[in-house]
Amino acid sequence: MSAQNTHSTFWKVIKLNVRQEGYILKFSYKLPKHLEIIQEMNIVCVPEGTSDNPVIECGELSVSVNNRKGHIVHTTVSYNPDLNDHMDGTMKLNASIEANSIFTGYYRDASLMKDEHDQFLPYQVKLTMLCKKKETQ
């Protein structure tokens, strides 16, 4: 019986916690070696309280893969309290990933996430990626 390659998908979630106003968070994560393609990414901004502001620009996100050879995302992250799940939307990426790749980048807070007393409101930026892996059966 010969080996046959099949593809399946899985979700990978990376959470970035923003605790200080104006914070610049650098991140670096080793991706699973069986990850072959990042097909799409959702970005969700979740405050730890209530913000009365309508649409808020939370910050700037930049992501590279393949040990910084491929720059796959550079975007403004927004929060809209009227949208269910607070999603910026799905970005189609279809980024090929090399074995033992590093997922790296930065997130820069825009200092606009405030509560009703105009105090900084800590929040989390959640990156949810639909990934494709290669399996041998």
Radius of gyration: 17 Å
Query: What is the beta-strand fraction?
Result: over 45%
Largest sheet: 4 strands, antiparallel
Q: Sketch the topology as an H/E string, one letter per element.
A: EEEEEEEE
- Strand order of the main beta sheet, please? 1-8-3-6
Number of strands: 8
- Name the average pLDDT: 87
Produce a short descriptive summary:
With 137 residues, the protein is mostly beta strands.
Would you give an account of this structure?
There is one protein chain. The chain contains no helices and 8 strands. The protein has strands at residues 5-18, 24-30, 35-47, 56-65, 70-79, 87-96, 102-109, 123-136. A hairpin with a 4-residue loop joins strand 4 (56-65) and strand 5 (70-79). The protein starts with a strand and ends with a strand.
Keywords:
four-stranded antiparallel beta sheet, disordered N terminus, mainly beta, 0% helix, 8 strands, 137 residues
